């Protein structure tokens, strides 16, 4: 993104990792700030499944995405998807809580998620009040949670968010159409069969009784290809396992096999391309950080 600030702008960001590529951030900015993600940036990004749900705790601002414009004030929330261009502006001192997570964690249909973006969530909504209170308290106590408790706390946050978004998502015409249903079935099949080394695009299409071309068309709804989605989910799951102390004694080759990579060198190359480090290097860094006294 491109960030523009005034001459006196100051900011601070704190965050907690909650597992499964899910983070909770607390951000405080003083002074005018605008961030823009252009069409070109969105098209070139590899993080096209990242979603952001921002709760304004103080101040005022605005968000524009999908030709929708929403103003933010104290207590309101807004969903943004990183794969699409957006613009976010604040002209005052602003404090926010932001939940960042992979799109596939949200138990809503693809069209529903897109339609929920850049729509204001009213602070007076009971579900929004519950979510806001939960995220605020979670940020305060996250340091005291164990490595196994953090993912559970993160999943609880996602469930609460889904409850909030169901109240603001408009009816999506054709949302239950065959293309949408096929996409959700294939995504679910991928998540349930990551360890299967035979699972490739052609096999995915065969198991769902469609052509490879039809499978590609289905994944165009979320701006990716079936192969890219499968690879991303395998690497994301592997990264989560490498970060988890419960799997610290499991060889990297076993983790590679657990997410469908037969060849360790192929897994290491793919992991380095995606995350800029080796699986072993990622594990050392994450486990060392988690073992430091707080």
Primary descriptors:
5-stranded antiparallel sheet, globular, 2 domains, 44% helix, Jelly Rolls, alpha+beta, 10 strands, Arc Repressor Mutant, subunit A, HTH_AraC-typ_CS, 294 residues, 11 helices
CATH domain fold name of the largest domain: Jelly Rolls
- SS field, number of helical segments: 11
Question: What is the beta-strand fraction?
Answer: 15-25%
Low-pLDDT parts are: 171-175
CATH architecture of the largest domain: Sandwich
Provide the residue-averaged pLDDT. Answer: 85
Biggest sheet layout: 5 strands, antiparallel
Task: Specify the CATH class of the largest domain.
Answer: Mainly Beta
Number of domains: 2
Would you count the extended β strands for me?
A: 10
The portion of residues assigned to helices is 40-55%
Which structural class do the helices and strands define?
A: alpha+beta
Strand order of the largest sheet: 1-4-9-6-7
Pattern of helices and strands: EEEEHEEEEEEHHHHHHHHHH
Cα Rg: 20 Å
Keywords: DNA-binding, Transcription, Transcription regulation
Protein name: AraC family transcriptional regulator
Organism: Pseudonocardia alaniniphila
Domain HTH araC/xylS-type: 184-285
Explained architecture:
The protein has 294 residues and is of the alpha+beta class. It folds into 2 domains: 2-168, Jelly Rolls; 178-291, Homeodomain-like (Arc Repressor Mutant, subunit A, Orthogonal Bundle), CATH 1.10.10.60. 44% of the residues lie in helices and 21% in strands. It contains 11 helices and 10 strands. The strands form 2 sheets. A 5-stranded antiparallel sheet has the order 1-4-9-6-7. Strands 2-3-10-5-8 form a 5-stranded antiparallel sheet, with helices on one face. A hairpin with a 2-residue loop joins β6 and β7. Residues 171-175 have low confidence and may be disordered.
């Amino acid at each position: 993104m491109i960030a523009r600030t005034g001459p006196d702008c100051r900011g601070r960001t704190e965050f907690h990792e909650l597992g499964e590529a899910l983070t909770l951030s607390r951000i405080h900015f003083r002074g005018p700030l605008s961030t823009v993600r252009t069409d070109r940036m969105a098209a070139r990004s590899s993080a096209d499944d990242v979603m952001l749900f921002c709760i304004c705790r103080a101040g005022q601002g605005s968000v524009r995405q999908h030709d929708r414009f929403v103003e933010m004030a104290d207590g309101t929330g807004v969903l943004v998807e990183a794969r699409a261009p957006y613009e976010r502006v604040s002209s005052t001192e602003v404090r926010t809580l932001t939940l960042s997570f992979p799109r596939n964690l949200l138990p809503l249909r693809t069209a529903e998620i897109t339609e929920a973006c850049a729509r204001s969530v009213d602070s007076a909504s009971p579900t929004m009040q519950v979510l806001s209170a939960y995220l605020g308290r979670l940020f305060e106590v996250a340091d005291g949670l164990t490595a196994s408790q953090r993912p559970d706390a993160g999943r609880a946050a996602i469930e609460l968010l889904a409850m909030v978004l169901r109240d603001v998502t408009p009816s999506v015409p054709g949302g239950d159409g065959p293309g949408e249903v096929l996409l959700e079935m294939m995504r679910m099949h991928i998540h349930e069969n990551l360890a299967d080394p035979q699972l490739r695009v052609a096999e995915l299409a065969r198991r769902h009784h469609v052509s490879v071309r039809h499978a590609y068309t289905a994944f165009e709804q979320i701006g990716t290809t079936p192969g890219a989605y499968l690879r991303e989910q395998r690497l994301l799951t592997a990264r989560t396992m490498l970060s988890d102390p419960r799997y610290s004694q499991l060889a990297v080759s076993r983790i590679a096999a657990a997410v469908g990579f037969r060849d360790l060198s192929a897994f290491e190359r793919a992991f380095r391309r995606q995350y800029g480090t080796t699986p072993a290097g990622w594990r050392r860094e994450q486990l060392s950080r988690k073992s430091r006294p707080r």
